[in-house]
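BUG: 3D viewer hangs when loading the predicted structure for this chain

Environment: internal workstation, default settings.
Expected: structure renders.
Actual: progress bar stalls at 90%.

Input used:
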Amino acid sequence: MRLPAPLRSVLLAGVACACAQLGGTSASPGDTSITAGLPDSVRRDIASMMRAVTPLADPAAADRVGYPATMGACAADSAAGAMGHHLVNRPLFDDKLDIEHPEMLVFAPLGGGKVQLVAVEYVVPYRFVPRDATPPRLFGQDLKHYDKFNYWEIHVWAWKRNPSGIFADWNPDVTCPAT
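Structure tokens produced before the viewer hung:
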């Protein structure tokens, strides 16, 4: 059954309003606004990653495939914003970068014990690619040093817009609850 154009418009507007009420800044694999301005090949890779990872947006689902759903501390920086909680799949910490299997899933706290998948983080430990070597690359970007944990890393803020950039470590729009 095909709806008349005016009714379709009203229905679409209602769906858009409902989606905005749910969070407004989340993105789906078909949403290209977060990746606007990136090369087409990078946009395709991010869309592929999102299709693979979106089913893990529920921490229980992530736990079933190797990302223990134990929520550690919420990572925050007083000047730069926050990251959120990281679910870590330790067996993926190797010399390979697979866009569909990030080493970490990043969840932002929503309050009331709820969390939302907002980003992924890819990691290559220095024992596989030494700190003084050429940086590994993913999504057209060099991975950055993270000396605190002795690895290369890159975040991809694919489900929540990051004013600091899609590949930035910290997101000023993410906050951690006061402890």
